[in-house]
UniProtKB/TrEMBL annotation:
It holds the Pfam family UDPGT. The keyword Transmembrane does not apply. One of its GO terms (molecular function) is quercetin 3-O-glucosyltransferase activity. It comes from the Eukaryota. Belongs to the UDP-glycosyltransferase family. SUPFAM superfamilies: UDP-Glycosyltransferase/glycogen phosphorylase. This is Uncharacterized protein. Keywords: Glycosyltransferase, Transferase. The keyword Transmembrane does not apply. GO terms for biological process: glycoside biosynthetic process.
């Protein structure tokens, strides 16, 4: 898969410094971006926190620089949205000194190639002031899609119009300038700390506007009108160069061990017969929802590969809440793992549908493999991603409201077996073709990557 778009091996004599948010869904795209830029001839330095540190031995061609994050002893486990907010706030507060020292050291190291720019996750907004003071251009990587980002960016307007404070969680009404999205999809309501969320969103958007450009893990054909809207609100260089994992997979940046039994089990199944179930690296569910999921999967009579990440079920270590009858009733029809090699699973011929939380990486990975989705979003941009999968791209269905076994059973039947699902599969196959074209010479992402490389070299 590496270098499939014919990337140059020529060295450019410039370094790029990258700094990811230490969460799986953010580390993966940042390290993929680093690999893409390396393959285009840049040398790579990665600054990272000690918390969820990437494994340098998987990237011998990068220089890794660990900084003090002051996270030890905090309760920032990253397991739920409130903790993610805590984590982001702590990093933005605690890392100022250590990040500045590290970057200053790298800039003054005359034995290495000169540094062209800094690329950080959009959430690491404190880095803009430091980059400015060191006269180093900062480019932002936004790891969500553009569609959901535009709603975050419209947040002050939504707040002013009362959509936030008086949001009706049941409202099916279209949301202002976003007719594809419903009022109930506004990502804000699911946090117990709305003020913290408002602050995070407001600050990171302000500092994105102050940056030298924005890189997106998406492709223009998927979000054409959203790209136009983005350019109106963010008059900065914009680089939609995705999907990143089509250049380099994320297996080297996985924080958890990927269970190979997922693939050997899939090898035994018929083509397009398996439902792959995974809710990503952060989302957590209540025990009652987990039990409804188990009933729905058992009653569906379909094959399934289920990722139950330790910590997914609130109050349980792993599978203690699984009803005793479940494994016996399901037998060889189901396979449960703690973490899967997701790219390989989605690309496997036996995988017929993906029941996902609609994190942007998972959604994009599913599109790239032409696998239709059942969507159970949990928080943040996932609600909007799910709405687009269901209502705009029509490549999956959104499971609305609470988990309920009958509803789950019908959704599995619809997406995996029925004609409806077949039509979703046809539509997503068209998108898959577009992905392959956009990465080829002359394609939209290929050209955008070329512009990004020239832009970085112009600094
Ligand atoms: N992933 C994986 N194995 C799993 C589940 C997820 O490798 O069993 C990877 C997946 O391929 C994706 C990332 O973890 O790249 C999850 O990112 P996403 O944006 O989908 O969700 P998040 O974890 O940030 O909520």
């Amino acid at each position: 898969m590496e270098n499939q778009v014919g990337l140059s091996k020529q060295r450019l004599g410039r370094r790029v410094v990258l700094f990811p948010v230490p969460l799986q869904g953010h580390i993966n795209p940042m390290l993929q971006l680093a690999s893409i830029l390396h393959s285009r001839g840049f040398s790579i330095a990665i600054i990272h926190t000690r918390f969820n540190s990437p494994n340098p031995s998987k990237y011998p061609h990068f220089a890794f620089h660990s900084i003090d994050d002051g996270l030890l002893g905090s309760n920032a486990s990253g397991e739920e949205i409130d903790n993610v907010l805590v984590l982001l706030r702590l990093i933005n507060k605690n890392c100022t000194g250590s990040f500045r020292d590290c970057l200053t050291r790298l800039l003054s190291d005359g034995t290495k190639e000169p540094i062209a720019c800094l690329i950080t996750d959009a959430h690491l907004h404190f880095t803009q002031a430091i980059a400015d003071s060191l006269k180093l251009p900062r480019i932002v990587l936004r790891t969500s899609n553009i569609s959901s980002f535009l709603i975050f960016a419209a947040y002050p307007l939504l707040q002013e119009k009362g959509f936030i404070s008086n949001q009706d969680p049941q409202s099916e009404a279209p949301l202002l300038d976003f007719p594809s999205v419903k009022v109930k999809d506004i990502p804000i309501i699911f946090t117990s700390n709305p003020e913290g969320l408002y602050e995070v969103i407001g600050t990171f958007i302000k500092q994105m506007k102050a940056s030298s450009g924005i890189i997106w893990n998406t492709f223009s054909e998927l979000e054409q009108s959203e790209l136009v809207a983005l350019a109106q609100h963010f008059p900065l260089p914009i680089f939609p160069i995705g999907p990143f994992h089509k250049y380099f997979t994320a297996s080297s940046s996985s924080l958890l061990a990927q269970e190979r039994s997922s693939i050997s089990w899939l090898d035994l199944q018929k083509p397009k017969s398996v439902l792959y179930v995974s809710f990503g690296s952060i989302a957590a569910i209540d025990e009652t929802d987990f039990i409804e999921m188990a009933w729905g999967l058992a009653n569906s009579k379909q094959q399934f590969l289920w990722v139950v990440r330790p910590g997914t079920i609130r109050g349980s270590e792993w599978l203690e809440a699984l009803p005793k009858w479940f494994l016996e009733a399901v037998g060889e029809r189901g396979h449960i793992v703690k973490w899967a090699p997701q790219h390989e699973v989605l690309a496997h011929p036996a995988t017929g549908a993906f029941w996902t939380h609609c994190g942007w990486n998972s959604t994009l990975e599913s599109i790239c493999e032409g696998v239709p989705m059942i969507c159970s979003p949990s928080f943040g941009d996932q609600m909007v991603d799910a709405r687009y999968v269901d209502g705009v791209w029509k490549i999956g269905m959104l499971l609305e409201d609470a988990m309920e076994r009958g509803k789950i059973e019908r959704a599995i039947q619809r997406v995996l077996v029925d004609k409806d699902g077949e039509e979703m599969r046809e539509r997503i196959a068209v998108l898959k073709k577009k992905v392959n074209l956009c990465l080829k010479e002359g394609g939209s992402s290929y050209r955008s990557l070329g512009s990004l490389v020239s832009y970085i070299l112009s600094f």
